[in-house]
């Protein structure tokens, strides 16, 4: 579809600059994106034709992790850092289907998410939206909407799904520690992250995708190693990703899948992992 047939950009949005939320929306087949966003995916597709599977695998992990947290985890409040634009299954819909009383606070700072995503995401009085920088934990933890609707004396789930790979500095573990320190015992953290599997072939692919993302008009997208991603769960017990494995990271598509895997995962699907950790 051409941009002319799309809704014009909201006031204050520069359609000549790619945004993480809109590139992700484009990868998921949404309509809230511009040519510049699709161009980022086209550039990465030259080195990884299945690039959109990064977004699909990430989103499917989010859905299953939220369902797990609301059912088995008994979690009733969710702090969703980097909500993204509304899509088919949003966090509040997933967890409020389990229990209508479950509370969700979405946090994002993208102007398009704020302008119309916010209106669509906040559809009841148990769902709220905070405009804050998720890579400055004090900004989120001290945010008035967050403080009003999330009770930090009761277990909660902190979601960083598809976000931390857009944090390019090397001190992401310290950033996550600030969040984890603020969580009460029994809380959970869910993360999905671009992954460098460190095998000859896939390490090269991950490196090539990272190079293109970092030099694209979006400017972020790091593929970290397993140890680098594990460091984002400081002091947390990782949940087993399937009945046979002890707690650890797992490829997003293999983290408690909804059924048997009927075809081999492609190379891109092998470059994104997820995990859920619990604070003892
Ligand atoms: N969590 C959703 C999911 O997994 O489907 C959306 C992931 S999307 C790839 C990342 C989101 O993080 C985007 O909506 C983007 O605007 C948001 N984001 C990126 N950097 C941010 C920042 N510094 N502060 C707040 N939000 C940010």
Protein described:
The chain has 280 residues and is an alpha/beta fold. The chain has a single domain (52-278), classed as Rossmann fold, CATH 3.40.50.150. The chain is 36% helix and 14% strand. It has ten helices and eight strands. Strands 1, 2, 3, 4, 5, 6, 7 and 8 form an eight-stranded mixed beta sheet that branches. Helix 1 packs across helix 2 (35-45) and helix 3 (52-71) packs parallel to helix 4 (91-98). The longest helix is centred in the first third of the chain and has 20 residues, at 52-71. The radius of gyration is 18 Å and the shape is globular. The N and C termini lie far apart (49 Å). The structure holds S-adenosylmethionine. S-adenosylmethionine binds next to helix 1 and helix 3. Residues 20-21, 24, 58-59, 62, 82-84, 108-110, 113, 133-135, 161-163, 166 line the site of S-adenosylmethionine (SAM).
């Amino acid at each position: 579809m051409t941009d002319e047939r799309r809704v014009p950009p909201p006031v204050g949005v520069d359609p000549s600059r790619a945004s993480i939320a809109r590139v992700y929306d484009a990868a998921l087949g949404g309509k809230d994106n511009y040519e510049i966003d699709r161009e980022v995916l086209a550039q990465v597709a030259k080195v990884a034709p299945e690039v959109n599977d990064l977004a699909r695998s990430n989103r499917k992990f989010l859905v299953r992790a939220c369902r797990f947290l609301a059912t088995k985890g008994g979690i009733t409040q969710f702090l969703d850092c980097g909500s993204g634009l509304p899509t088919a299954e949003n966090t509040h819909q997933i967890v409020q289907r389990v229990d209508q009383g479950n509370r969700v606070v979405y946090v994002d700072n993208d102007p398009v998410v704020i302008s119309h995503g916010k209106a669509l995401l906040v559809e009841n009085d148990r769902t709220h939206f905070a405009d804050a920088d998720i890579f400055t934990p004090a900004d989120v933890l001290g945010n008035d909407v967050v403080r009003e609707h999330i009770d930090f004396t009761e277990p909660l789930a902190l979601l960083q799904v598809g976000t931390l790979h857009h944090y390019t500095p090397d001190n992401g573990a310290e950033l996550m520690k600030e969040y984890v320190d603020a969580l009460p015992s029994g809380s959970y953290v869910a993360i999905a992250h671009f992954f460098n599997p460190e095998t000859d072939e896939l390490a090269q692919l991950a490196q090539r995708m990272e190079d293109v993302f970092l030099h694209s008009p979006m400017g972020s997208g790091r593929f970290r190693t397993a140890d680098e991603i594990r460091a984002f769960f400081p002091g947390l017990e990782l949940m087993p990703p399937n009945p046979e494995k002890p707690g650890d990271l797992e490829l997003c598509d293999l983290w408690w899948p909804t059924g048997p895997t009927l075809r081999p995962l492609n190379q891109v699907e092998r470059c994104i992992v997820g995990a859920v950790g619990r604070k003892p």
